[in-house]
Amino acid sequence: MIHCEKGLFTLHTKHTTYQMKADAHGVLLHTYYGPRVEDCDLSYRIRYVDRGFSPVPEEAGKDRTFSLDVLPQEYSAAGMGDFRLPALDLELPNGSRTADLRFKSFRVEPGKYTLEGLPAFRGDETLVVILEDAAAGVEVELYYGVLEDCDVITRAVRLHNQGGQTVKIRQAASLCLDFQRGDLDLITFDGKHIQERSPNRGPLLPGVRSAESVRGSSSHQHNPFVILCDHDAGEDHGLCYGAMLLYSGNFQAAAERSQFENIRLTLGIHPWHFCWTLAPGEHFTTPEAALCCSKQGFSLLSHQLHRAIRERLLRDPWAGQPRPILINNWEATMFDFDAERLVNIAKSAASLGMELFVMDDGWFGKRSSDLAGLGDWAVNEEKLPGGLEALVPRIQALGMKFGLWIEPEMVNEDSELYRAHPDWVLQAPGRMVRSRQQLALDFSRKEVRNHIYDALKAVFSSAEISYVKWDVNRSLAAVWSAALLPDRQGEVYHRYVLGLYDMLEWMHRDFPHMLIEGCSGGGGRFDAGMLYYTPQIWCSDNTDAMDRLRIQYGTSFCYPVCTMGAHVSAVPNAQTGRSVSMQTRGVVAMHGTFGYEMDPAQITPEEREIILRQTAFFKEHQALLHQGDYYRLSDPFQNGPYTAWELVSPDQREALVSVVSGPIQGGPPCRSLRLKGLNPDFYYQVNGQGRYPGSALMEAGWPLPLPWGDYQSWQFYLTAL
Ligand code: DGJ
């Protein structure tokens, strides 16, 4: 719901309120964001205080209590006396770095805005507040989208050069959010390859703390999602705010606690190596950011974010659709396979209930190691005689669908493509930075995208391809585009991302039923921007079930189970050397888009039985696993004896509790697990037995079996009587 009255703009979702106000000088002040309150002008909270050394804009005259350095801004701009984090940094033709934004007008639109060429949530209503810098001739449209039921507010910014001179955008954040308090914790989700998205929490201290990427993609190292919360906020209590950026390139999420103990969060494209030239008449649109607020802790925050992603971001036909259980050959074969080996894997997989066979890296060009072949998207007929036309029907004859791996953005020097077009790489002249023996293609250029896409389209059209795994396996370095003039190189990273989204959009257009899974050496590009195009993303190259507990735990704060690619792989695990039972590997992997990544012909008869039970269980309960409300019942980083989590159906009639124990220690304690999200008035059966009040299961708990040996697991399936 949107209310606009005399320069006061209030957005309500079901349980939250967001408000801003244009003050007497036309400065748009942020007055409130938090739990829903009755309609009122919340600017009464703003304190006007004379602060030494805080500058005063000309029109405030001698009023030293009016300073942009102190007041809560809706969209902060650099250079006019607000010394905190800027959202906007403009370079004017005279070389000055000043932006002075004043309220001009507003409009309310039915339905939610979309952003051309960029991912965006679907929503209910739009408010556009228009600010202008009259001297610079720049208009800044602040877009707000309301997703009422999910308690999500989205934001994006569109700059329009209405003047007669070219200006440069040095920074344009998607979001600036000021809090009139200084006592908040910041949680960021950080890590590295094979150890992504570990939560890191700490109180904001004076100065700036940030999570950011300048790797060209959102990265394994930091995620474009952060939480700000009360110091004592936990899973079930406390005020918390989630902020995500729908963007897959360089980003910066920065939180500053300023001198007077206020907090500012900015989130957007990273300003490093960013400079967008805006000629007269041109527009620039930032990526979308989304905000969510819960006054009941992280569980509710996650439920709302999960719902928004599932229902308002993922696109048809895969939003809400059951995902096939897949078998991927990568860990079983690496590059060393031929058609017979693949068909044999598929045969055993089909007999175990798996539904989709995915041929990973190595099927094209001269690709028998990572030294060669990227860029040559034609089937390697030495490995696969007769091409996909011959292979795919053999897989389909087993009752399975077929999918394949691609890495369109990359090229090996040892490839026909590179030999023909060495100038198509994204590489500064005289520089060469390889990573995994590959170079990045200049996806900012349409002719490059066209060439790659034409080749891929021919492959996709040669047989029935139901699924594609879109991988990218390096960070960008020594970035430079031959297609951009020297003073336009600051646009290259963003144009690369726009090019990526553009090609993904072509895939949606031409192959609307294809399921696309994102990947970047596992979870190096796991962000809401990619999820708009690829409804599932390979969560991590680390398939060790115990490590996955942590990776999936961290990922779950923002992203729902149905987006996390998770597979059972062989033991000892290829990344850690650890051996965990088939039972436990399955319990962990089914809390994702379930699959296997091994040669099922190599397993014992007992393991076959377990897999048969797992695939049947997943098919029966996929709706609960993928659409249920997710509760983190314990924190795997605390090294407690158990890691536990739970899914509850929206009608509370079904729940699944999963528990995994860690390394065994003699004399383990007898523990009860207090369940969450059940209906206290319902009675439940647990694994088909008994009659237990929901209130008892939640307040008194459920006794856990004593572990015997390392890494055990149990599942308790609850149904309301
Ligand atoms: C990295 C991915 O994360 C793996 O799953 C696999 O597809 C390899 N790339 C193939 O090169």
Explain what this protein looks like in three dimensions.
The protein contains 12 helices and 38 strands. By secondary structure, it is of the alpha+beta class. The strands form 7 sheets. Strands 6, 7, 8, 9, 11, 12, 14, 15, 19 and 20 form a 10-stranded antiparallel beta sheet that branches. β8 (138-147) and β9 (152-161) form a beta hairpin. The radius of gyration is 26 Å and the shape is globular. The two termini are 39 Å apart. The structure holds (2R,3S,4R,5S)-2-(hydroxymethyl)piperidine-3,4,5-triol. Residues 330, 360-361, 405, 471, 473, 519, 521-522, 538, 541 line the site of (2R,3S,4R,5S)-2-(hydroxymethyl)piperidine-3,4,5-triol.
Key traits:
alpha+beta; single chain; 721 residues; binds (2R,3S,4R,5S)-2-(hydroxymethyl)piperidine-3,4,5-triol; ten-stranded antiparallel β-sheet; eight-stranded parallel barrel
Secondary structure elements and pairings:
Elements: E1 2-5, E2 8-12, E3 16-22, E4 28-35, E5 88-91, E6 102-110, E7 125-133, E8 138-147, E9 152-161, E10 167-179, E11 184-192, E12 195-203, E13 207-213, E14 225-230, E15 240-245, E16 251-257, E17 263-269, E18 276-278, E19 283-285, E20 289-294, H1 297-313, E21 326-328, H2 330-333, H3 339-351, E22 356-359, H4 387-396, E23 401-406, E24 410-411, H5 416-420, E25 439-440, H6 446-461, E26 467-470, H7 492-510, E27 515-518, H8 528-533, E28 536-538, H9 545-556, E29 564-569, H10 582-589, E30 593-597, H11 605-627, E31 629-632, E32 642-648, E33 654-661, E34 672-673, E35 683-686, E36 689-693, H12 694-699, E37 702-703, E38 713-720
Parallel strand pairs: 21-22, 21-30, 22-23, 23-26, 26-27, 27-28, 28-29, 29-30
Antiparallel strand pairs: 1-2, 2-3, 3-4, 5-10, 6-7, 7-8, 8-9, 9-19, 9-20, 10-17, 10-18, 11-12, 11-14, 13-16, 14-15, 15-20, 16-17, 24-25, 31-32, 32-33, 33-38, 34-37, 35-36, 35-38
Helix pairs in contact: 9-10, 10-11
The protein binds (2R,3S,4R,5S)-2-(hydroxymethyl)piperidine-3,4,5-triol.
